Amino acid sequence: MADVNHTAFRPGTFLLVGIPGLEKFHLWISLPFFSMYIFALLGNLVLLFTIVREQSLHEPMYLFLSALTVADLLLSTTTVPRMLAIFWFRVGDISLGACIAQVFLIHFISVAESGILVAMAFDRYVAICNPLRYVTLLTHSVIWRIEIAAIVRSFCIIFPMVFLLLRLSYCTNRVIPHSYCEHMGVARLACTSIKVNAVYGLTVALLSAGIDVVFIAVSYGLILRAVFQLPSAGARRKAMSTCSSHLCIILLFYTPAFFSFFTHRFGGHSIPRHVHILLACLYVVVPPMLNPVIYGVNNKQIRETVILLFNPIAALGAAQPGCRQLGCFPAVCKFAVGRFCVPGGIAEV
């Protein structure tokens, strides 16, 4: 029997089990995941449509944000639908090709998103530390080159993983204790040595996300130094408010990623497996869900543009003379007389 279990072959399918140890709660776990996924889809699509539709948002910060939105949509769509199929219908079978494709897409999108966050940090650095050269440095052609560079870098880093997995010979054990395919989860099913896979996975994490975090930290160190040198408290608050959304997204992206990475390698015996898997599942759905909310709440220009695009009453009010100049909320402004919005009272400037 032992010989059968260790017979090397290339299996037609693997079996994803969802969240091991919590199988009887899969239906209940699926409800918040489904809700978060729908919210992520709607939020990111609305944000992307708003940026594409509104000419005034075709600025470097928002163009980088649109790239981040596309990455969020791809990351959640690559993982969550299959995850829900496991939770709802216990359909965990996945072919070798589809599993390796999912490995590539998940890691490729994650590394590309990390590169986009670095680009967004550079954008904030130029805007605050060198504002007079902001328009000349970050032209549309430069932005496209930065985004293409992030994609090419991610492809070059992650594509070798495909060959590292295909070179392995797999045993009859084809059960993956996870909700989606990831590099080391698939590699551990092999009968042959996976030392190269382990070393490469660690190197990728340190040389992509690790270096990106260093660049982001340096950028925000220079930003903070420039902010504290501003003459007035109001100017300092305004400068930091432009960075708050990006800082929230950085923490939302890297905190669960590094926590899962380090606990998986150095705290595996002290933290239950289902906690690892649950955190990994949250990582692919929570940031995509919250990123549009963070920018929608903190960014006045996006918030007002969304209102104008999706609220006909607000758009009608905004079209009235004088209302926008006075700062009235468009949905309740009929027209402006002097310092007054009618109806709506005194304009809040």
From TrEMBL:
The answer, when asked if ATP-binding is one of the entry's keywords, is: no
Q: Which residues form the G-protein coupled receptors family 1 profile domain?
A: 43-295
- Pfam family, any one: 7tm_4
Keywords attached to this Swiss-Prot or TrEMBL record, sorted alphabetically, are: Cell membrane, G-protein coupled receptor, Membrane, Olfaction, Receptor, Sensory transduction, Transducer, Transmembrane, Transmembrane helix
Q: Which family does it belong to?
A: Belongs to the G-protein coupled receptor 1 family.
Task: Give the membrane topology.
Answer: Multi-pass membrane protein
The protein in question is named Olfactory receptor
Q: Where in the cell is it found?
A: Cell membrane; Membrane
Q: Which residues cross the membrane?
A: 25-49, 61-88, 94-122, 142-166, 198-223, 244-263, 275-297
Which SMART domains does this UniProt record tie to the protein?
7TM_GPCR_Srsx
Keyword flag Membrane: yes
